[in-house]
Amino acid sequence: MPVSEKLPPGARFVLERLTSAGFEAYAVGGCVRDTLLRRPPHDWDVATSAPTEATEALFERTVPTGERFGTVTVLTPFGGVEVTTFRKDGAYRDARRPETVEFTGSLREDLQRRDFTVNAMAMGLDGAIIDPFGGREDLQNGIIRCVGDPERRFSEDALRMLRAVRFQAQLGFELEEATLFALRRLAPLAEKLSAERVRAELCRTLASPRPELIGSMIEYGLLARFISGFQEKIPWRRLVPVPEELREPVFALMCRNYGLTPDAGALLRALRAPTKVVREAQGAQALSFSPENLPELLCVNPEDHVLIAAGAAGNYEDAHAAIKRRQYVKPSELSVTGSDLRAAGLHGPQISATLRDLAIRVTRGEIENTREALMELFPNGDGGPSGGF
Length: 389
Ligand code: ATP
Ligand code: MG
Fold this sequence. Notes:
Blueprint lengths: L8 H12 L4 E4 L1 H7 L8 E4 L3 H7 L3 E5 L4 E6 L2 E7 L1 E3 L11 E3 L3 H6 L9 E2 L5 E2 L4 H7 L1 E2 L5 H7 L2 H13 L2 E2 L1 H10 L8 H12 L7 H7 L23 H14 L6 H7 L4 H11 L8 H7 L2 H11 L2 H9 L13 H6 L4 H17 L6 H5 L14
Helix pairs in contact: 6-8, 7-9, 11-12, 11-13, 11-15, 12-13, 13-15, 14-18, 15-16
The structure holds adenosine-5'-triphosphate and magnesium ion.
The site of magnesium ion has 2 residues, from loops.
């Protein structure tokens, strides 16, 4: 099937209307890359010679998503499509994205401002690929290469260095030599990026099939603002079996365990991670995890905390299996309750501590989880369980 038939109806609708009105219009960037790789693109971006006002006039329903940067979202009957006027970037300040942009009538100039050759291709309605920088060849060879001089491109926008590693991880590609050389030299510029933008790239790398490339980000110094030091032998592959939603706290805990940060929660706070993720990392950090203690840890701690601690120690699969097989008994699942213990003469915090101890002993197989067996430990109702507490 020709690649143009891969154009989804929304993008096709937008390209058809813009080109019939006499403008140039192409699908560009990630969607072309992913189509050529036969991966499903997660969004379709269109670049056009039409100024934003012309785009707004041509379609019934539009949303001005970033007019200053030439972007309008067209609401088609098939969903929203981002349409951006051909542009070249204006002056960069401080290794961050440009304050202003300049519009241009040239597709080539629009492609030239894009970060990597594999992201700098366009596809027209007829399916023809416009590829002035050799993106297709790099795609075939699995190479991430800057468009133009890598030193200049990374100095313009330091986020591109994190994106380079992120695409390497997502696509299974390697960095081209000059791109890697420039990245190693200019990594300190990443210091100026906002924590939110750094975290977004970090999380996408963690969620990729090669989360261990986080180790390269650290080695190059791209995370130096958040993490100090570098150790060669950190087993980042431990992140692979961990599901995506737990990888960020596991990563933070590994940083703590290997001495890259004193505190996993503080690291995640600096990265502006959501409170829930910070709390999970803190909860996991408070456990002293060892594989032998797994069932006991599971009976008295939230499962997520144990999974994170286990993930950081390389035992994620064991913890997951133990949860699935329910190889532990929670205090709430005991055949005695707090009221039973109160009736037996225990008070206040003693009660919850005793329930925890009982749950651990039941989990270890030392006592049966029956009312008779458990109440036998409190024969006198004198406030103290017998049997070795
Ligand atoms: P994803 O699959 O993650 O969406 P993508 O390639 O579509 O990947 P986006 O961040 O959505 O990435 O950006 C769309 C396109 O805009 C890119 O393909 C690239 O051409 C261009 N682009 C994005 N960020 C930059 C940047 N910092 N510098 C230069 N070009 C960029
Ligand atoms: Mg995209």
